[in-house]
Amino acid sequence: MTTNTHYTVQFPDSDYAPATVNADQLLSVSLTLENSPILFGCRTGICGTCLVSATGEMLPPDADEQEVLSILAPDCATARLACQLRPMGNLSLTLL
Ligand code: FES
Q: Quick check: 3 pLDDT over 70?
């Protein structure tokens, strides 16, 4: 038997309503132009287009994402690349 868990992603600095995302998917799959203010470019963690401040429950960045974050947002402890972000609970995302 499989469970289909969903979480809520809020965008507090925008007019977008909270989006419901699948727990098993990266946000680059769950979020679209229609349901979020986040723009995606490469979707592979290279370009930085999807840079956000993220709070909530999520897997930590891997070494590759951490390297990009250290260049793009070295002083922001909550910075994440939304395209690499896999939720583990409800999230709040703000564009950086
Ligand atoms: S879309 Fe390029 S780093 Fe996320």
A: no
Residue 38: inside a domain, yes or no?
A: yes
Ligand 1 and 96: CB distance under 6 A: no
Whether the pTM exceeds 0.70: the reply is yes
Residue 53: CA count within 13 A, CB half-sphere: 10
CATH code of the domain containing 26: 3.10.20.30
Domain that holds residue 30: 6-95
Q: Specify the number of domains making up the chain.
A: 1
Mode of pairing for the β-strands spanning 87-95 and 51-58: antiparallel
Would residue 23 count as lying in a domain? yes
Q: Does the C-beta of 29 come closer than 6 Å to ligand 1? A: no
User: 4-62 pLDDT, tens per residue?
Assistant: 799 999 999 999 999 999 998 999 999 999 999 999 999 999 999 999 999 999 999 99
d(CA 48, CA 61) in angstroms, rounded, equals 14
